Structure formats: C-alpha cells, structure tokens
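Worked example

This section walks through a single chain of length 86. The input is the sequence exactly as stored; nothing has been trimmed or padded.
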Amino acid sequence: MDSQSRIAGGRGTYGNAGITQVVRNFDFVQVNADAVISELTYTDDVNALTDLNLGTTTWVAGMLISAPMGKSFKSITLTSGSVLIS
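Given that input, the structure is written out below as tokens.
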C-alpha cells in the first residue's frame, strides 16, 4: 500500500473486543481500552510483537501502532481489551 492510501485509511476499520483471532490485512492498531495482545503477525509471518519490541505487555488506551513502511499486519489476537484495526 502506498503512503497516501495508508494516510487515508485505505483498508477500512474493523473492531475487535474479544479473544478471537482476526485475520485480514491492516496497517494500524488503535487501542480503545487497555489491551493485552498475545499475537500480532506481519503478512510475511514474522512476529511483529518481537520485531517491534512490544512483547505481551498491556497496551494503554489511545496507543496507535503502525506497521513499518512496506509491511502490513495480517493477524492479531487479544487476551483482553479492545482495539480497532485499519
């Protein structure tokens, strides 16, 4: 996805407030309620939590995490909390 599409939110927005794994391409994770994310994977199957040095700590409401340019996320699993992905 090019930079202009990323800025415009070209993939739409999807909410996740459960422990079910969500599989779809997305570039951003916005935390709505304090969340623990147990799995976050790039489209090339690399563990994004390890790559971004984020681990399985509590992400606080208001955080916005972006995939590095040239990469996208493909799946996310929450242990708790609520996020929007786009």
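What to look for: The two ends are 12 Å apart (CA to CA).
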